[in-house]
Automatic annotation (TrEMBL):
The lineage of its organism: Eukaryota, Metazoa, Chordata, Craniata, Vertebrata. Residues 1-60 form the Reverse transcriptase domain. It comes from Amazona guildingii. This is ribonuclease H. InterPro entries: DNA/RNA_pol_sf (IPR043502), Rev_trsase/Diguanyl_cyclase (IPR043128), RT_dom (IPR000477), Viral_Replic_Matur_Polypro (IPR051320). One of its GO terms (molecular function) is RNA-DNA hybrid ribonuclease activity. It is an enzyme of class 3 (hydrolase). Its EC number is 3.1.26.4. Belongs to the beta type-B retroviral polymerase family. HERV class-II K(HML-2) pol subfamily.
Length: 91
């Protein structure tokens, strides 16, 4: 049987798996558990049954991960540090 993966970073959750039915079953369990703990998910942020999702500035699809266009644009817009102090601040 395929497994479902749950990845958590601070308040972001990613639930993924090969079989949609397995993912849905685990999502129900997760949502019930969070509800029992008094926690809720924002409907506007939920990406459900998607082939590609945004997670922590990345687009994840079909087992691959790449930076989102917004994240790439922010990186390109960064000013090049010119002093040692600016380099330290950048790092």
């Amino acid at each position: 049987k395929d497994t479902v993966t749950v990845i958590q970073y601070v308040d972001d959750l990613l639930v993924a798996g090969a079989e949609q039915s397995d993912v849905e079953e685990e999502m129900v369990k997760l949502l019930n558990y969070l509800g029992q703990q008094g926690l809720r998910m924002s409907k506007s942020k939920v990406q459900f049954r998607e082939k590609e999702v945004k997670y922590l500035g990345h687009l994840i699809s079909g087992g691959s991960r790449r930076l989102s266009p917004e994240r790439i644009a922010r990186i390109i817009e960064l000013l090049v540090p010119k002093t040692v102090r600016e380099v330290r601040q950048f790092l």
